[in-house]
Amino acid sequence: MKYRITCLLLLVICSVTITAQVPVREEPRHHPVLQNKYIRLLDVWLPPGDTTLYHIHATPSLFIILSNTVTGSQIKGGQWQQNRSPAGYAWFRSFLNDTLIHRVCNMDTVVYHVNDIEILSSYNTNNAPTKKTLPFTLLFENERSFAYQIKNITSNKQIINKRGPMIAELVSGNAIFFHNTTTNETKEIKAGDYCYIKPGTSFYFSAAGKGEINLVLFEIK
Fold first, then answer.
1. CATH of the domain spanning 20-119, picked from 3.30.390.50, 3.30.460.10, 3.30.300.30, 2.60.120.10
2. Strand partners, 23
3. pLDDT in tens, 20-59
């Protein structure tokens, strides 16, 4: 009798674990590494063969993939779908009237690395002038953000200032340096790393070596 009760309890626990759904910020593989008034950055590392819990996306978000990985995703109640997630692919999803509940599995032999940047607040006020795009390749623009791509960094200092909060994500290539001309601080950014840039900061990037890079720069409007 005790054995039957124990088995039933284990079945219940397993069932709850499999079907559990949590806000994405509480999913164990989504690590909150930065949060402020404007954004919450979730750094996601999923080992080969591992699967996330079902989790809920309900906040406008920017995403960027930092690894080349074959993954699977399953919307709750649906079938598994296999995808190839290429490093450097970036996108935005508003999740307005579009809440997503899904889970993701790593079907590859390498770690799946992705950043989920939840936009918690806009930067511009209603009276703020519309900002022009920066002198970089524009990946996309929407009501909440800009996304740019930088493939190489010239020796000329291209100083950027008077902009909204930004996240610089180095997908690949040699390390680069972020120079804050307001505080005279310098930060090295290696492939797979991010750098948060406070609104209004005056800054520029410099190259640590030669060769092409893939730097994605997000700006919150």
1. 2.60.120.10
2. 56
3. 799 999 999 999 999 999 999 999 999 999 999 999 999 9
